[in-house]
From TrEMBL:
Documented EC number(s): 1.2.1.12
Uppermost EC category: oxidoreductase
GO MF annotation list: glyceraldehyde-3-phosphate dehydrogenase (NAD+) (phosphorylating) activity; NAD binding
Domain of life: Bacteria
Organism taxonomic ancestry: Bacteria, Pseudomonadati, Pseudomonadota, Gammaproteobacteria, Alteromonadales
InterPro entries in alphabetical order: GlycerAld/Erythrose_P_DH, GlycerAld_3-P_DH_AS, GlycerAld_3-P_DH_cat, GlycerAld_3-P_DH_NAD(P)-bd, NAD(P)-bd_dom_sf
UniProt keyword terms in alphabetical order: Oxidoreductase
Domain Glyceraldehyde 3-phosphate dehydrogenase NAD(P) binding, first and last residues per copy: 127-288
The UniProt record lists the keyword Oxidoreductase: yes
Annotated PROSITE patterns: GAPDH
The family this protein is said to belong to: Belongs to the glyceraldehyde-3-phosphate dehydrogenase family.
Protein name according to UniProt: Glyceraldehyde-3-phosphate dehydrogenase
Amino acid sequence: MSADKHLQSWQERFEMAEAMQPLLGKLYRNQGVEVVVYGKPLLNASTIEIIKSHRLVRRHVGEKLRLRESFPFVEALSKLAVKQCKVDIGKLAVNYWREYADASQIEAYMSRELADAISHEDTEEARDVVLYGFGRIGRLLARLLIERTGVSNKLRLRAIVLRGGRKGDLEKRASLLRRDSVHGPFNGSVEVDEENNAIIANGTYIQVIYANSPDEVDYTKFGISNALVVDNTGIWKDEDGLGLHLKSPGASKVLLTAPAKGAIKNVVYGVNESDILDEDKIVSAASCTTNAITPILKAVNDKYVIVNGHVETIHSYTNDQNLIDNYHKADRRGRSAPLNMVITETGAAKAVSKALPVLEGKLTGNAIRVPTPNVSMAIISLNLEGETNKHEMNEYLKDMALQSDLQNQIDYTDSTEIVSSDLVGSRYAGVLDSQATIAEGNRTILYVWYDNEFGYSCQVVGVMQKMLNLNYQSLPVA
């Protein structure tokens, strides 16, 4: 193809992506329909990001997906009375063009494939959400909730609760939401309402409340009722501590963004969210590492049956460590985080059994904290009942990433050049690095990347939706 043809082709794709953007926005804002291409979200995506998402399809299925082939599906989707679901137009388009020679049957095909969502009655009311704490996870949860803002959005961020309240605190909190050294600038506008002690982000009015204890707040004074309180402080981890939230007027349920103690259910979204019952007032979303490894462990166990194994996590440092050598109550964590690899303990491997009881007593685990600010890796070494090899294991897990109930948790890469910084912003619980897979006979070693901040936060949002009975289908099913 000539240079002029290349440029013309690029301009055509660019124009098609531009035409797609307003349709994608309206689908989400007005109908609650999130459009993805093989799991890659297009909500608020730039034209370049839309083009890139289509280029990645070849890596997944070995076939090109051109924008001119997917655009009719977005158009058809915008004409259907579909509500409150995630629709993968990549899968729909690829499957359609394998079967049909022209576009004449697209609307009928879409009506069949999305029948469940078309007949779905949108009866759920929007629910109030309060973020108790506004650290790394709290601010990312805020970003995720704000990006979903629309008339059809059922999760409404209403307030954040903080300790302190010193002069200038509100502006500093807004600045931390506006700018992030790892995840980049906030996608939109952040304003401060000093008079009413609030932050307004992309039109979302967020009341800032100061309190020193979970039971000190009367949310009803701010028009907040029946709220889900998401405790991301990590201070309270048992029923007695987290139960304090329920003493606050206006709070109805509590979600902990850390492993819980005692009888509180630890939930990994995509694996055991069905364990959540209406009467459960307090639930834990487990840890980032438990979320990263449990979906892949479930997939492997379902086919090969895990005898036993060990999980070693190479984990980015966190604010629980020291910048320079100083006292810390835990062994080794007092040593400088940016200057050392630090061996430490992790309960993530044992915690897997709380979400996947079949693995009770089968896994051990350890962790090494390393001098990177975000993105971690789990090295999973397993002994299996069934035999396998590298190609078979990779193909199976690739299929799990593309065509299974775990497709929103497991991602797959076959790149020979991928490194940790490439995974910043990944929305998956874990990403299998297939090039590194080792498998022979009854033994396998899997290398799983995960954005321990953003990927985990996406999992937390899933648990939030389940706790509030906000049904959100992923279509097509396979």
